[in-house]
Amino acid sequence: MFNILSTKKSTKTLNSKFENDQQKFEVIINTIDDGVVLIDGNENVQLFNPAAEKITGWKKTDVIGMNINNILKLVNDKNEPYSDDANPIKKIFLMPKPIRDNNANLVTVSNMTIPISLSVSPVIESDNKVTAAVIGFRNISVERAEEQKRAEFISTASHEMRTPVAAIEGYLSLALNSKVATIDSRAESYLQKAYTSTQHLGKLFQDLLTSAKAEDGRLSSHPVVVELGSFLEQIEGDLKFSAEKKNLFSEFVIGSSRNIDASTNNLTENHQVKPLYYVLIDPDRMREVIINLFDNAVKYTEEGKVSIGITGDSDIVQCYVRDTGVGIPTEDIPHLFQKFYRVDSSATRTIGGTGLGLFISKKIVELYQGRIWVESELGKGTTFFINLPRISNDRAIEMQNKLINPS
Ligand code: ADP
């Protein structure tokens, strides 16, 4: 039980210990379980706490004054050293904003690679200049191992469950086929409902499996050169029917007078459009993304139209799926691409879904160094944009020829 007397006593002992701010600061820095490092404007170490020693294997006495990049050696998931552009410790001196990286790995003194969560915060002087930085980091091996176990469990369970669900779906579809089975109309309506629910279940297991693979990097992908314009036009042709079933107009729009600024997402007017948009993608994977965006557009639109469009500049191909539907509240937009996230509204409550589609779509787009984001206005409609690196026509033809004549 909580003992007020002993608490009072220990508070008193502590108070006497913390007579000045310097002592308090030292107790925190020496006790905290996270590695804390202070570097100066030349990226040299000025402070290295005991937790930083424990995590990295370096001794404080050896690192003070040394360049931090020789101490905190950061590598990505493929064990490649961070480029200067990706390294938060380099970026902090260019952009005075705290940076967090939960996917970093650290190479320790004994050459072990451990996953860490890293945050780098700038020390800013009055003229907005970054003169030093505070680096905090934590060993997240346990969390990563748990995540991995969870993903493996989901992957195995959904794989095992998908097979019997596919069999149930198959038998229900046979029962509903008047050429092979005879059932009365009441049984037919029950079986139709069972069939629809089984299809949802099958989709959920499939999405769970794909998302587990996307998380642990097992998502298979065979990128080839694809002309995205004709690719999207064909998909729109195949999907038109599902929009028309809901009395929605569906269209494919090639080119536009708009220009792309990938860094700010600003679209400016009057850009000359080139007709062939070559990209390097796995067509099966990208089809999944476009179908998901189109299905969502149809699901969340009651009247108007759904458009698939493409435009680009010399470096980037941009495609989009636009609808005139319910729109997405501004506060939900930052969370949309998270696993299982669904907007809590009357529309989503009545419309089925797993909240996995956009998470998977983002993972797929990132496989091709692409970017996906959304712009939406409540009650007016939503546009999902995808930017992909563009391959020049000459390069695309050269790559295609190489595939046909490998010698
Ligand atoms: P699901 O559609 O299966 O719920 P998604 O990951 O595809 O999962 O989408 C996540 C959420 O984003 C949806 O539940 C919905 O709230 C919102 N959303 C996605 N696309 C649209 C759209 N075109 N219009 C309005 N809301 C959308």
Describe what you observe in this structure:
The chain is of the alpha+beta class. The protein has 12 helices and 15 strands. The protein has 3 domains: 22-139, PAS domain (Beta-Lactamase), CATH 3.30.450.20; 144-216; 224-398, Heat Shock Protein 90 (2-Layer Sandwich). The chain has helices at 4-17, 21-31, 50-56, 60-63, 88-91, 141-175, 185-215, 228-244, 283-299, 346-350, 357-367, 393-404, and strands spanning 35-40, 45-48, 73-75, 99-107, 113-124, 130-139, 224-227, 249-254, 258-261, 266-269, 278-281, 305-312, 316-323, 371-377, 381-389. The strands form 4 sheets. A 6-stranded antiparallel beta sheet has the order 2-1-6-5-4-3. The chain has a 5-stranded mixed beta sheet with strand order 8-12-13-15-14. The chain has a two-stranded antiparallel sheet with strand order 7-11. β9 and β10 form a beta hairpin. α8 (228-244) runs parallel beside α9 and α9 packs antiparallel against α11. The model is unreliable at 1-11 and 257-271 (pLDDT under 50). Adenosine-5'-diphosphate is lined by residues 292, 296-297, 300, 323, 325-326, 328, 336, 341-343, 348, 353-359, 382.
